[in-house]
Amino acid sequence: MSSLHDHNVCAHKDLTSSPSGYAEQVGYVRPSAEQRARAAGLKRGQQVAEGSFPAPLVLPNDDLDLDPKWPPQNVRSWVRGKERNEVTDDRRTLYIAPPPRIDSEVKHMQSWSIPCRASDDDSKTRISSPNAHDVAQYLQAFFCGMQVNLLEPSVVPLNFMRWQDDKRRSKKRKRSDEVPSIALANATEAVRIRSRRCPDGAFLQQLNLNDLLDAVISNLPADAYSLLMLMEQDMYEEEDDDYCCGRAYGGSRCAVVSMARYNPTTLASNISTLTFSHLWPASHCADNVNGLVIEALSEKGGKGKRQLRDDRQTSHGGKTLTLVDLTSSSPPPAEPASTTPQFESAMVEAVRRWAANPNTTQESRWLSHICRTASHELGHCFGIDHCVYYACNMQGTSSIAEDRRQPPYLCPVDAEKVKRAIAGKEKENGRWQTDQYQALLRFCKDRMDKDEGDLWAGLAGWLESRLKECREDL
């Protein structure tokens, strides 16, 4: 058991609920509070508990920095989506496929999931990758009301094997370092999977994501709403990509998630610039957000220190930063109606619980990463596009660092989409939402009973606060 974030790095005294000062410069315009409420399908006069749902941060090199004009998808446009698949009585199961087994002919693949820059100590104490059963349990809670099953190898035996055509031309191979071609096979067919050397040297080889998705589609069970396959190897999508952690063919109801880049050994190496002290929920620490913006602008040579100091005061479109003092033992004072709403209890409680429960295992941290990414990719199978309204599980990501700053919960807009997909529109009293919160809370407490804190403790605090807010709204 080890503490994976250092409380001495930052006290996380203040949180911000607004986009960073960088957001306005790159052209990101957040929909108004009224537009956000309408986007979530709320009736006129109803409001979102904005204090519990902060805005996207939009930091340098984030997804919304690269594409700040990404079109928002409200509930109405989601309902009208032509490629969206309805949940039916015959298709109400989410299948999770464990990583395929590796045949002896391609046993060299076993080394592809081991980070190349692992230290001798890392090699001696290899961390076990997340268990597919644990991921399935989380997804059962996240998509409350759906059935989540493992795709048992005894039913659909997925395994990597040597591509048959490759055997016939092996004698013609000129390069001694050329890797034999592989295939992903079930009991009746095999799909060739391309591979290449890892461009940044993080792993020996990568597998082609598009080929893997083709293989997943061919194994979709008849009663499946969707199928997600977990991978231990690193992946790439296009030739100019460095790597890809996950992707979904939403219309085809298939997804693949690689666990390789979330390996704590990889994250701790110099491949990743991830700082463990500002993962969610501490990602909205105002000092860190401002510091990242200042650092990025300084590297670009755009501003002097004096100008940057002024930005810290008016970096949110002229609005005062929304701050909460986490070092105070008393609750924050009520915000006057004329100013920007303060954080209410959910985010504050999430950070307090996270900071108070720093100890966790490396395996638990790894599992939390995979659970969040798997729920995101399956969200695409429900027809949900990337979110631009709030910091949300359905936000797009352009890096591991951004990925880890984003929350594991759904914002009100995307939660309404999942609710309607699973429970139908008639449940307007919010019962599905409270059922989901309670199911996720049970999962978090089960992990915490195993002495795993960190994200699970933060999410538990957020969920308990949100359940109180939901009861107050009834």
From TrEMBL:
A single MF term (Gene Ontology): metal ion binding
Keyword entries, A-Z: Hydrolase, Metal-binding, Metalloprotease, Protease, Zinc
Family annotation (InterPro entries): MetalloPept_cat_dom_sf (IPR024079), Pept_M54_archaemetzincn (IPR012962)
Stretches for region Disordered: 303-342
Keyword set includes Signal: no
GO biological process: proteolysis
Comp. bias intervals (Basic and acidic residues): 303-314
Essential cofactor(s): Zn(2+)
Transcription regulation listed as a keyword: no
Protein name per the record: Uncharacterized protein
Organism, scientific name: Ramalina farinacea
